[in-house]
Amino acid sequence: MQISAVSNRINEWSGSVLIVGVLEGTIDNQINLFKTTVKETYLNQRFNEAKFKGKKNQSLSIEIIEGKVQKIVFVGLGKAENLLIDDLRKAASIGTRQVLSFERKVGIFFPWDAFDLSSAAFAVGEAVRLTSIKDLRFKSETKESTQIDEVELIGLDVKVAQSAISEINPICEGVKLARELVSAPPNFLTPSELAKEAKKLATDYDLDLKILDKKECQEKGMGAYLAVAKGSDLDPHFIHLKYSPKIVKNKIVLIGKGLTFDSGGYNLKVGASQIEKMKYDMGGSASVLGAARAIGELKPSNTEVHFIVAACENMINGSALHPGDIVKASNGKTIEVNNTDAEGRLTLADALVYACELQPNAIVDLATLTGACVIALGDEIAGLWTDNDQLSEQLARAAGKAGEGIWRMPMRDSYKSGIKSSIADLQNTGPRPGGSITAALFLKEFVNSSIPWAHIDIAGTCWTEKDRDINPKGATGYGVRTLVNWIKELNFKSN
Fold it and tell me: What is the number of other CB atoms lying within 10 angstroms of the CB of residue 136?
């Protein structure tokens, strides 16, 4: 998909579909603007019949028999005084969903002047690109999906917009990779296949790669991670990718939970736990590898980025982890396993210890960690846990720019009593109340207190059961854009 800005006037543009953003109360302006394209009386009649007023989420599609444009899709933006850049993103998505497979060239005309032009151009182009992605890899008879060849953002200063537009494809390709990894069935995306995806990224984007096998993980004392992997016949793969700029001022580590399938182990997922969807329990690793794909192409300056995934399955066999077992993590802390379905935090524990040994400026982990977070925040907002205000502000700003919901959650120390064990240093679950908080507090036990660290729980946001804005039903690729935005704008305060 080629996305570009054009300075043409609206009546000079020609193509398949024109998507027009309409502010509430400006219908007469639209009729006047398009009177040379559509008869004034007909356009007025269609607006009246559809009761189209320009309110948010309203849309009206009009076919054109003759002329430079085949179809105009009017999309409501709401009142001008309430207009946000997310409204442009959503309107672009609504319009894109009305583009048919044979309509190859799309023009978009929005009230750009209400925003920073480069930010608006990026948000709209990104929305079109992400909305049009369809994953048809596993269908025997694939129906042609919406294949938009060209997108032209009409009425923009080309020089101002072009720099932002040039970043759309690398970032969207990262989201696409994340979505495809999450969507892939567990018999297709195994721990070894996830490692192969990392190898491909390393080759394609000149990233350094280290993959630790089971023996190497044992030598590093990764007893928590390996305890989870014992229940599967498939070997674990500890993945470590690195992007290195010429000059390094910052060093950060991104960690993604990498359970390619989570049966729950002996605490088997039953009933409403939706075991059939547990292929997406590697959503955190998908986001991290998607970010690696984007960073590998964008090549930001000054920041060295490490991408870490402790990949394995949580299954049941004669060697599997028992409820009641005690395991030792690589920092020496012992953990009583009172629930084998709280396995992600065990794998992350050893990944966090490994990350701290790299002595970075900051660590961020993403994980589909708790159902409690979904209950608290639903499926549009991820939970953020950190003791570092600067890191919290940076991530919230990066998520806001991406239009990805995030909310900082509390980390009250008194809740740590819930993860104390009478026979080990910790137990891997606490009481039901505050379950996402105690999960974050558990992870904190494996982070060096001198290193800024944030945990993002994406259990609700990595998958959607409905077409929602830029996310078609299924994997969302949540987190890729937030991470990339954060890395691009990093500026750590000196210690």
Answer: 10
